[in-house]
Amino acid sequence: MKKQIYFRPLLQLIILTSLVTFSACSSDDSETITDETDDESTEESAIDTDSYILVADTNNQGAYLINHDGDELFEWEFDRSLGNDVNLLDDGSLVVCLKGDNPEITLGGYGGIMRKINADQTIDWEVSYYSGDDYMAHHDVEYLSSGNIIFPVWEKVTSAEASELGFSENLDIFPDAIIEMDPLTEEIVWEWHVIDHLVQDYDSTKENYGVVVDNPNKVDINYNNTQENGDLMHFNGLTLDETNDILYITVNNYSEVWVLDHSTTTAEASTSSGGNYNLGGDLVYRFGNPLAYDNVGDITLNNVHYPNLLDTGNMLVFANDVYDNQSEVVEYVLNPPYELVAGQDNEPTVTWSFTDSELYSSGLGSGVRMSNGNTLIAEGRDGTIWEVSDSGEVLWQNTNYNTVWRAYAFLTDDPAVTALGL
């Protein structure tokens, strides 16, 4: 593979005197916003040479651990296509989501098979979760400290069933669910279904009829009712905060991040009571697009991928199309425990963001904070991997890959890297 690595000249740092206004970018320059200035800074930004980069390449059916020279230090080749995520664990094993055989649900990002591959590339376990046109695991799989895996699922709802839910159109739909499974026994240990938590103002004869803005913890089933393929929500990323037992979900077609109380039992998760928040499986928080529940506040997301919870408690997300054919990585300040108040601005503070006229991916994408404070960005469908400084300086780019699901950063002395023999 021909290496194409680009280093942009380091720019002299400018002393910032005020915050940069968050606005649409119409010039050719990169834009960032930061929450503070550093008038004493004299050091130039530098790439994070203490980190290797894990690339999930959906085009070549593989995953690669690379350095900043573009050298592929370790390679995983799969016998089937990615569907889409990879998780590199401390013991050097890789948990990966792959595409199943002869699926009937083939919406973008479908998967169906989860597999754990040991450092020596033998298969530790494999589970499937798809069945005809009834349900299909898709996009993401997270490996938990318990050894369980958690992943999103599409579930078919016929047009007749959708009508009973107050859906305004006459078509089959595929609302999302979340499944947590013990992969060794294939026992489902926890589950959540969005169809248990809907509101709609279309059909007053249905039980879930209500005023959308007065029910911020519920999901308006008709917000995206023009989606002709029935993929109303399109979950594409999960992150479980195990300390607070909170689950974050990127919901692409609602342009939001949803937050669930994972402390509930499965029975409670189907209701509106129980768990740490006593809301059952209703949303405990949501942000990015208040229009999705007829609310007020700034719109900061338009399509979205990867709810990346940082060690600081903040969150990075990849906003696919905040501007006209231009993406952005946005960092939010999150403050659990959460509360949603009807008719009030519930949006979190944006503390940092990066965009560039050359940064655009209509799908896929990720943002990761590196060990020296830089941000690693996967420009999904273009395949370019970016590294940018806190001040918005583009320090490094890699264009070796055509389609990148996500890119993750690992310290060169990380246990996972050591376990791979590097």
Overview of the structural elements:
With 422 residues, the chain is mostly beta strands. The chain has a single domain (5-419), classed as YVTN repeat-like/Quinoprotein amine dehydrogenase (Methylamine Dehydrogenase, Chain H), CATH 2.130.10.10. It has three helices and 30 strands. Strands 10, 11, 12, 13, 14 and 15 form a six-stranded antiparallel sheet that branches. Strands 1-29-28-27-26 form a five-stranded antiparallel sheet, with no helix packed on it. A hairpin with a 4-residue loop joins strand 19 (246-251) and strand 20. It is globular. Mean pLDDT is 91; it is low at 8-29 and 34-43.
Short description:
By secondary structure, this protein is mostly beta strands.
Sheet having the most strands: 6 strands, antiparallel
List how many beta strands DSSP finds.
Answer: 30
Mean pLDDT over all positions: 91
Helix tally equals 3
Q: Could you say what the CATH topology is called?
A: Methylamine Dehydrogenase, Chain H
Principal-axes shape call: globular
CATH class: Mainly Beta
Radius of gyration: 21 Å
Please report which band the strand proportion falls in: under 5%, 5-15%, 15-25%, 25-35%, 35-45% or over 45%: 35-45%
How much helix, percentage-wise, in residues?
A: under 10%
Q: Which second-level CATH architecture applies?
A: 7 Propeller
List strands and helices in order, with pairings.
Blueprint: E1 5-6, E2 31-33, E3 51-57, E4 62-66, E5 72-77, E6 82-88, E7 94-99, E8 112-117, E9 123-128, E10 130-131, E11 135-137, E12 142-143, E13 149-155, H1 159-164, E14 176-182, E15 187-193, E16 198-199, E17 219-220, E18 235-241, E19 246-251, E20 256-261, H2 266-269, E21 285-287, E22 304-309, E23 315-323, E24 326-333, E25 349-355, E26 366-369, E27 375-379, E28 384-388, E29 394-398, E30 404-411, H3 415-419
